[in-house]
Amino acid sequence: MTKLIVGLGNPGDEHEEDRHNAGFWFVDALAKQLGVRFESEKRFHGKVAKAKWEGEDLFLLKPSTYMNLSGQSVGALCRFHKMTPADILVVQDELDLKPGTARLKLGGGTGGHNGLKDIQAHLSTPEYWRLRLGIGHPRDLAGDGRPMDVADYVLRRPQLAEQKLIDASIENGLQILSLFLKGDTQTAMMELHSKG
Q1: Which GO molecular function, any one, fits this protein according to its record (predicted)?
Q2: pLDDT tens column, 178-190
Q3: Which residues are catalytic?
Q4: What is the pLDDT of residues 92-127, one digit of tens each?
Q5: Binding annotation for tRNA
Q6: Domain residue spans in the chain?
Q7: Which residue from 15, 162, 24, 156 is spatially nearest to 92, judged by alpha carbons?
Q8: What whole-number distance in Å separates Cα of residue 11 and Cα of residue 35?
């Protein structure tokens, strides 16, 4: 069973509503659903919530490091609790998926995502689960023809219509989580991927 769900984002009130914090939004929603609270844990460089799922311990983690150092937090918690990469689900924002889309996969590249790069470096493998929440790409924005810098885009708040779509993809991810945690990953993927 997955023992750790990591939401990726940047700490601080000024980043709370950034697109880059979609992973935080997911684990916050999950913690609320499970009735658990995040507590700061210095040794894990993050905020941790501990829940029970089918009688097993399930940890939720929000790294307090900035995104590009997320692996420091994930690595510390995994070493302490003797978790393997297969025990981990990392929830991240994904530029290459449109808002409202969520995809589940095991392993693969980082797609230039600095949080994933650092996690992969600390785990010495890309073989961990990812839940990718679409935030769209700035090149898809209709505007004045000037492309927005990717860093500016991910560190900005989504428009209301986008936010509603991202919230829906988070809800879809939460709905398949039970299947995923039971180990029925194929059904979880089929159900999630059929939702757009």
Answers
A1: peptidyl-tRNA hydrolase activity
A2: 999 999 999 999 9
A3: 20
A4: 999 999 999 999 999 999 988 999 999 999 999 999
A5: 15, 66, 68, 114
A6: 4-193
A7: 24
A8: 22
